[in-house]
Amino acid sequence: MRALKIGLVVVVAVLFVGHFLFPRPLAQTAEQRNSAPTADASSTALIERGKYLVERVAMCIDCHSPRTPTGEFDQKRWLQGSVLDFAPRHPIPNWTDVAPAIAGLPGYTEEEAIRLLETGIAPNGKPLRPPMPPYRMNREDARAVVAYLKSLGKR
Ligand code: HEC
Prior knowledge:
mainly alpha; Cytochrome Bc1 Complex, Chain D, domain 2; 2 domains; two-stranded antiparallel sheet; 6 helices; 51% helix; binds heme C
């Protein structure tokens, strides 16, 4: 019994002293463990993913980014709209040869743009004209693409 009491006193004393000796690191790790990622960190990750989808997967740049006279993408006018360099071999109804500016997504709310990429349908209820592909993205991908394109408007 006596040994138990002494044992308890020692444990309490160690915890007590430990608390005052190392309050900061302990407090910080507990905080870090519990805190969700900050809004900034998660929106940066979303924008990065959107950039990857736009530039590497869906290739929006191929149509929407203008090129210099020598054929490279014009870095200064990234995704600022372009006249297409190609035409259909056979007539395609409603074909349009201008891909408008999508940097900043002018005229679109986030939700409208997300819906467009999920359904292929524009806010006016109609599909966009070819050769704009009628994407059927999942919501996560559409959100990422829109976050990236919107971020280009804030430069
Ligand atoms: C093969 C060429 C092509 C590709 C690839 C392409 N687009 Fe388009 N996009 C177009 C054309 C052409 C239009 C114009 C359609 C119209 O006027 O009806 C358009 C229109 C749009 C519009 C409507 C713009 C407005 O002012 O109303 C948005 C938004 C858009 N594209 C986003 C994207 C995104 C995001 C991607 C990639 C995920 C993409 N496009 C890939 C050709 C393309």
